[in-house]
From TrEMBL:
Residue span(s) of domain Aminotransferase class I/classII large: 44-416
Known pathway: Amino-acid degradation; L-kynurenine degradation; kynurenate from L-kynurenine: step 1/2
Keywords of the record: Aminotransferase, Pyridoxal phosphate, Transferase
Family: Belongs to the class-I pyridoxal-phosphate-dependent aminotransferase family.
CDD domains in the cross-refs: AAT_like
Reaction(s) catalysed by this chain's protein: an S-substituted L-cysteine + H2O = a thiol + pyruvate + NH4(+); L-kynurenine + 2-oxoglutarate = kynurenate + L-glutamate + H2O
Necessary cofactors: pyridoxal 5'-phosphate
Encoding gene per record: KYAT1
PANTHER family reported for this sequence: FI04487P, KYNURENINE--OXOGLUTARATE TRANSAMINASE 1
Protein name: Kynurenine aminotransferase 1
Length: 448
């Protein structure tokens, strides 16, 4: 029997019936997956594409995980379906203070498999056939397929850069929504608005005025706001992260999504959460109890303990939420300098792990890079850079809807948390020397 099983040809099941569910139509190809794959196929590349830090997490988080694994044996077992009670309790307490809300750990908190899980649960719970979902471009690329999988219709509105003074570097805060255009996107079919602040890939931190505009439109048109705030602690230059749920009248219609992966530099733990009013959360619980049901207990215990530690240090120099942004701001500045010295024109981000950089000069010098017919320039450029310079970035056009990609094909995204030491250790970030080495080659080719 085992012998026969081994000899059976693998792959290729064909059926008289349609095999894949219709909800997968048009979303099977993911450019991000393609670029991650491309990077992994090449030996000796510097991967500044993917969004995770390559420094160690804070010691207290690692110890909390070790403690969770080697301590109470019951942490090897299932816990409460909607979240390990000490975690839902500390999340309620911690974020209740920030949002100015009385948060009930049982009714207003759901623990998910990363922020990805939170987003998926939210889309499945709230978006229906024919519902319109407004997405700000550039957008974290899963928002569009998640809308489509739920049967919704994505409606895009772009942040656009305002002109800068000659010689002045561009900044993510120069990228703004046109208020009239934004208002025109709301219709009687609009169900949800997706906000991401600080934004991936641009690093824009939405201002209070911008959030107030979104809030008033959501209220006027009776729309739910799904607010992805996974980079909320990574904010620079004195900018402030504001949760839209903290604005008057917004808690009732907002789901606030967070990620322990980004918060404590532990992206592999995949612990995320959603906070919101019970009237919305009860539908997310329905999806959760009929899909994932339950997230890994030990990771939740470690995140609970890490938040408890942070609550004690909150606002003090010893707080990781104070140290992390200071440290990665230095990483950002290092990378900006390196990129500028190579002939790139980075757009200075005020938040997140990422920055985008203008490659128009390269486009002018090397317009005919190989690629498929109609393939946006930034994708051809990144493929060329991986193959010839061993440097991986992500083309920014993938963060735009198809019709708008041609307008934004001259930017690429770098992740700047690629260093070998950790926040709080007082050493200078080291990544850009390697980047610079690769970049010198870039300038030569670009100039030639
Ligand atoms: C904007 C944004 N939201 C959500 C996620 C997913 O976070 P997690 O790793 O916790 O699933 C990411 C990850 O890169 C992200 O950039």
């Amino acid at each position: 029997m085992a012998e026969r099983a081994r000899k059976r040809p693998c792959g290729s099941l064909t059926m008289a019936k349609r095999l894949q569910a219709q909800r997968l139509d048009g979303i099977d190809y993911s450019p991000r997956v393609e670029f991650v794959q491309l990077a992994s196929e090449e030996a000796d590349v510097v991967n500044l594409g993917q969004g995770f830090p390559d420094f160690s997490p804070p010691e207290f988080a690692v110890e909390a995980f070790q403690h969770a694994v080697s301590g109470d044996f019951m942490l090897n077992q299932y816990t409460k379906a909607f979240g390990y009670p000490p975690l839902t309790k500390i999340l309620a307490n911690f974020f209740g203070k920030l949002l100015g809300q009385e948060i009930d750990p049982l009714k207003n908190v759901l623990v998910t498999v990363g922020a990805y899980g939170a987003l998926f649960t939210a889309f499945q719970a709230l978006v229906d056939e024919g519902d319109e979902v407004i997405i700000i471009e550039p957008f974290f690329d899963c928002y569009e397929p998640m809308t489509l999988m739920a049967g919704g219709r994505p409606v895009f509105v772009s942040l656009k850069p305002s002109p800068t003074q000659k010689g002045e570097p561009d900044s993510s805060s120069n990228w703004q929504l046109d208020p009239t255009e934004l208002a025109s996107k709301f219709t009687s079919r609009t169900k949800a608005f997706i906000l991401n602040t600080p934004n991936n890939p641009l690093g824009k931190v939405f201002s209070k005025e911008e959030l107030e505009l979104v809030a008033s439109l959501c209220q006027q048109h009776d729309v739910v706001c799904i607010s992805d705030e996974v980079y909320q602690w990574m904010v620079f230059d004195g900018f402030q992260h504001i949760s839209i749920a903290s604005l008057p009248g917004m808690w009732e219609r907002t789901l606030t999504i967070g990620s322990a992966g980004k918060t404590f530099s532990v992206t592999g733990w995949k612990v995320g959460w959603v906070l919101g009013p019970d009237s919305l959360m009860k539908h997310l619980r329905t999806v959760h109890q009929n899909s994932i049901y339950h997230c890994a207990t030990q990771g939740q215990a470690a995140v609970a303990q890490s938040f408890e530690r942070e609550q004690l240090h909150f606002g003090r120099p010893s707080s990781y939420f104070v140290q992390l942004p200071q440290y990665i701001q230095r990483c950002r500045d290092h990378m900006i300098q390196s990129l500028q010295s190579m002939g790139f024109r980075p757009v200075i981000p005020q938040g997140s792990y990422f920055l985008i950089t203008d490659i128009s000069d390269f486009k002018n010098k090397m317009p005919d890079l190989p690629g498929a017919a109609g393939e946006p320039y930034d994708r051809r450029f990144v493929k060329w850079m991986i193959k010839n310079k061993g440097l991986v970035a992500v083309p920014v056009s993938i963060f735009f809807s198809l019709p708008h990609q041609k307008f934004f094909d001259h930017y690429i995204r770098f992740c700047f948390v690629k260093v070998k030491d950790s926040p709080g250790e007082g050493r200078a970030p080291q990544a850009s020397s390697d980047l610079l080495g690769r970049g010198v080659g870039l300038i030569c080719v670009g100039a030639g």
